[in-house]
Design goal:
Strand order of the largest sheet: 1-3-2-9-5-7-6-4
Radius of gyration: 21 Å
Low-confidence stretches: none
Number of strands: 9
Distance between the termini: 65 Å
Number of helices: 10
Order of helices and strands: EHHEEHEHHHEHEEHHEEH
Structural class: alpha+beta
Oligomer: single chain
Length: 266
């Protein structure tokens, strides 16, 4: 059996993160009555969104004021959500600080090895119609079994931490030149660290190769934000993170509903 090179993946909901800044100088020029009208219009627009598909967060620090996180089954639906927000009256008092587009991804390192071994034992040849048909059947079963993870709702936890990340591709350390079995071993050890925190942190990993500037996006949700620090700190000691990981900008926010938005903006 030829060793697989590329791990199989399952894809689910498309995701859009919108980091926004409030144009406070423009906002403060409005009289209270007009501010109320703008906020009422914003409430109407945000009220159209299913809270299980769109979450709003008040951000900490200088990187932005509001974070909108959208989960949708198609890119078209994601694009529609973006335009719905852009057409609200509040939008003229917001400016983009950053954004991130990705798709929920489950990496199947262990399943890839099992599938290659099973198909080889059945006499199937890679890159043949028979192999492709058998693979689609197998992945179809896994998509059904993993549907809750592939198409999640916005977790209810109070705090969010989001960051993008890459695997190193330098001349000295290059994740993509390591033999598959070795990568699978490291990813297994990496995943075991995450499972230790399953009772405290909900993790959603999304793939962004071809969609955005980094390779993956990581969303963490928790009732106590200190667990973000504990989880990420411990993960940095495992081999895949310590040697092969590059991290982008970190964003942290507090879940905010319409009443809280009105209070913040009033």
């Amino acid at each position: 059996m030829a060793a697989p090179i590329v791990p199989l993946t399952l894809e689910g909901s498309y995701m859009l993160h919108q980091m926004m800044r409030v144009r406070w100088s423009d906002w403060r020029r409005l009289d209270p009555e007009t501010q109320t009208q703008v906020l009422e219009d914003a409430a109407g627009t945000l009220g159209l969104f299913n809270p299980e598909q769109t979450g709003m967060y008040s951000m900490l620090g200088h990187k932005g004021d509001l974070l909108f996180v959208h989960f949708r089954k198609t890119l078209e639906e994601l694009n529609e959500a973006q335009w719905q927000l852009a057409k609200s009256k509040l939008w003229q008092f917001l400016e983009p600080a950053s954004s991130y587009t990705s798709v929920v991804e489950l990496g199947l390192y262990e399943s890839t090895q099992r599938i290659y071994r099973l198909f080889t034992e059945r006499g199937l040849e890679p890159d043949t119609p028979e192999w492709a048909a058998a693979l689609e059947e197998e992945l179809g079963r896994q998509r059904t079994a993993m549907a809750p993870r592939l198409f999640p709702t916005i977790p209810p936890q109070k705090y969010i931490c989001f960051y993008p990340m890459d695997r190193k591709r330098g001349e000295d350390k290059n994740w993509y030149t390591i033999p598959f079995a070795e990568r699978a071993r490291m990813m297994h050890e990496h995943g075991m660290v995450g499972r230790k925190y399953a009772d405290y942190v909900r993790q959603i990993i999304s793939g962004s190769i071809g969609f955005d500037d980094w390779e993956w996006g990581v969303d963490l949700f928790a009732e106590d934000p200190v667990w973000f620090k504990k989880l990420i700190y411990e993960m940095r000691f495992d081999e895949v993170s310590a040697v092969y990981a590059l991290f982008g900008t970190f964003y942290i926010g507090v879940r905010t509903g319409l009443p809280q938005l009105v209070q913040l903006m009033a």
